[in-house]
Design goal:
flat; six-stranded parallel beta sheet; 48% helix
């Protein structure tokens, strides 16, 4: 039971336990039970700290059901006042003073929070930038960080001193300790409120912020020709990350435009200038007159704020070619052009019939794959390494075969760990694995547990060594894992298409149990693959074949590489530059 409480699924239970402590403290206060009140109130405060520090989902759940932090703090303060009234039974005047002091903290907190919000609006963080020097910016005065950080709903936490004050008052049968504690809380709160109020008065008439005008001046002087636009959330930022290096290598002035603060903070390191403007109105008020080509890595609603710009060509580059339905989204009709890796992408749109015209499709290869070593291109001494890189569960509940992880993942991993002679396993799931499906999340955790039990690193940040690895962070990157891999096991996804660049053997899982001919016909990326059925009965034979170098799929992979990724010459980076040059003029 304790394990479940402390585990990932115990968020609701932990939140409920904190609420129970508040209720016990409230009842104990009403009954004048000082000891019980002291224990329950202390546990409630410690629980609040623990939720903020280690269990944010618990606090989110309490907020969703209306048990906000403010209500919980009011409950704590009420319990303290009730304890004094029940245990000491003072006259009306001390009770009134005690209640006024407790209430004063709340009143000051409310007004301090309101004034702090008004100060923030004088200095709106309308844009975030990276690798850009905007020069000196005029800003309205701000309160010190220690005051700004607590102004508002955090300030009533100072009433926590009422807990020991009320307990001492109950034990000594004197109201004075509670009044002193409440007065101390008011004094500290008043200092914070005064600092915020003075700062607000100093900043009156300071006018609007100068950040967005400074960004516009930078755009006017830098005059970017290419914009990599990404409006997705932080969890999808890998989609933009894969286009950073190719965009850097264009040898043209380029800029990354983003719309999410969280995604901006998660964006990988880059030399490109980056601008994040979250508000739609602010973004649409910027002028991008010099931009000739806008590249879109994802189909999201906020793309409309860039698509409305008439003076540039809008190009969907996506975040990987695959046989999944997402690779032929009808949304793609809104772009001037759709760039795919090879002939496979062109034919995929033709088969889908979603309205993307053939003349608007351009084959550029995959410029991201320049660093992926081809088969036999390097000599390394390491164990035979298998990369298991399943895709995520997808958006739809009625597609149980979207990922092999749920139906086959544990069986695949157990088979690899038990294989003799031993192989090295690298497990790198899709970044969104488990984000929608609790079942997928549970299987993922069990797979990580299996690898940990086999002596592997459950949170690898490097590919060094010879042990099993679980790679879930941004680094090591997927393509770095490719260069350590002798055999890939994956699903119908862009991971397979990209791995074909290496010309190394790969396995595609067939969790739906389709006949082999039908599977390869429906999913052309599997034409050079070994297929793995749900029972994984073929796994041992595939490992033996590929380890021995007796690989009958070599020729099929060579032909498939050209079909999926285009010709070797000119290389994909050069084709990318040529097409950008065509659009930019």
């Amino acid at each position: 039971m304790f394990g479940k409480l402390m585990g990932p699924a115990g968020g609701a239970a932990r939140g409920a336990l904190v609420v129970l402590c508040y209720l016990v403290a409230l009842i104990a206060g009403a009954l004048g039970l000082a000891g019980l009140f002291a224990v329950a109130a202390t546990l409630a405060v410690l629980g609040e700290f623990a939720m903020m520090r280690w269990s944010a989902p618990s606090e989110v759940l309490l907020e969703k059901v209306g048990l906000t932090r403010a209500y919980r703090q009011l409950t704590r303060d009420l319990a303290g006042v009730l304890l004094v009234v029940s245990a000491v039974r003072p006259g009306a005047t001390p009770v009134v003073w005690l209640m006024l002091l407790v209430a004063a903290v709340w009143v000051i907190a409310i007004f301090a929070g309101a004034l702090n919000t008004m100060i923030d609006r004088r200095n709106p963080i309308s844009a975030l930038v990276r690798n850009i020097e905007l020069g000196p910016l005029r800003a309205a005065p701000r309160p010190p960080s220690w005051a700004a950080g607590v102004a508002g709903e955090r300030l009533p936490f100072l009433n926590v001193v009422l807990i020991p004050g009320a307990v001492v008052a109950a034990v000594t049968d004197q109201v004075a300790p509670a009044l002193v504690a409440a007065g101390l809380a008011v004094l500290v709160t008043a200092v914070v409120g005064l600092v915020v109020a003075v700062t607000w008065l100093r900043g009156r008439g300071s006018g609007q912020g100068t950040l967005l005008p400074a960004v516009q001046r930078w755009l006017d002087s830098y005059r970017p020709e290419v914009a990599l636009y990404f409006a997705g959330p932080a969890k999808d930022v890998y989609q933009a990350n894969m286009w950073l290096a190719p965009t850097e290598a264009l040898e043209r002035p380029a800029v990354v435009l983003m719309r999410s603060r969280e995604a901006f903070l998660e964006l990988a390191d880059t030399r490109l200038p980056v601008i994040c403007v979250p508000a739609g109105v602010d973004f649409m008020n910027l002028e991008f007159g010099s931009v000739r080509t806008a590249l879109y890595a994802a189909n999201v609603g906020a793309n409309i704020h860039m698509l409305r710009e008439p003076g540039m060509k809008h190009v969907f580059v996506g975040h990987g070619d695959s046989d999944k339905q997402a690779s032929v989204n009808p949304y793609s009709k809104v772009y001037d052009e759709v760039w795919v890796a090879g002939l496979a992408g062109r034919e995929r749109y033709a088969r889908a019939g979603v309205g993307v015209r053939d003349e608007d499709i351009v084959e550029i290869g995959r410029p991201q794959l320049a660093g992926v070593h081809t088969f036999g291109a390097e000599s390394v001494e390491r164990p035979f390494t298998v990369l298991y890189a399943p895709t995520w569960e997808g958006w739809l509940d009625d597609d149980p075969y979207h990922t092999s992880l749920v139906l086959m993942g544990e069986r695949i991993v157990k088979g690899l760990l038990a294989n003799r002679p031993a192989v090295r396993l690298i497990y790198k799931p899709h970044p969104l694995t488990g984000s929608r499906s609790k079942v997928a999340r549970a299987v993922h955790e069990r797979v990580v547990g299996l690898i940990r039990a086999a002596g592997g690193d459950p949170d690898a940040s490097s590919l060094d060594g010879t042990g099993h690895l679980v790679v879930t962070g941004r680094t090591p990157a997927l393509f770095d894992c490719f260069n350590q891999t002798d055999l890939l096991i994956s699903d119908v996804s862009s991971v397979v298409s990209d791995f074909v660049q290496s010309q190394r053997p790969y396995v595609v899982a067939n969790p739906s149990g389709l006949p082999e001919d039908e599977f390869r016909r429906n999913f052309p990326t599997s034409r050079g693959a070994y297929l793995l059925s749900t029972d994984c009965g073929e796994l041992e034979k595939i490992l033996a074949l590929t380890r021995a170098g007796d690989d009958p799929m070599t020729e099929a992979r060579r032909d498939l590489k050209t079909y999926l990724l285009g010709p070797d010459e000119p290389n994909s980076m050069e084709r990318f530059r040529m097409e950008i040059g065509r659009l930019c003029g």
